[in-house]
Amino acid sequence: MANGRGHTGHRWRQVRREVLARRPLFCYFCGHEINPRLTFPDPASPQVHCIIPVSRGGTTTVDNCAPSHMRCNQEAGNRLPAPEFIPVEGLDP
């Protein structure tokens, strides 16, 4: 989609490829390493999680996406992260 929202098309594939190219891969939720060789339907296979869900106004950008296990991502659903996990622009951690 032209507005950067949604999980279809060339832009999503590009973002997904970029996020999963990071090495080593650690799950955004559980912190364990992700084996990039695992494939669907393995519950430990890599997926890309949108930190602010697209259904809640988030965008499909590298800055809003993080690697996760399929199982961890499915458990999260479309819930928003706790405020302490949302980065604030302009502030150094």
Main β-sheet, spatial strand arrangement: 1-2
Any idea of the CATH topology? Answer: DNA Binding (I), subunit A
Shape: globular
Structural class given helices, strands, pairing?
Answer: alpha+beta
Biggest sheet: strands, sense, closure? 2 strands, antiparallel
Query: What Rg, in angstroms, do the CA atoms define?
Result: 13 Å
Name the quaternary structure.
Answer: single chain
What would your notes on this structure say?
- The chain has helices spanning 9-20, 70-76, and strands at residues 46-50, 65-69.
- It is of the alpha+beta class.
- The chain has one domain: DNA Binding (I), subunit A.
- A two-stranded antiparallel sheet has the order 1-2.
- It is globular, with a radius of gyration of 13 Å.
Topology:
Layout: H1 9-20, E1 46-50, E2 65-69, H2 70-76
Antiparallel strand pairs: 1-2
Main features:
DNA Binding (I), subunit A; two-stranded antiparallel sheet; 93 residues; single chain; 2 strands; alpha+beta
Précis, in short:
The chain has about 90 residues and is of the alpha+beta class.
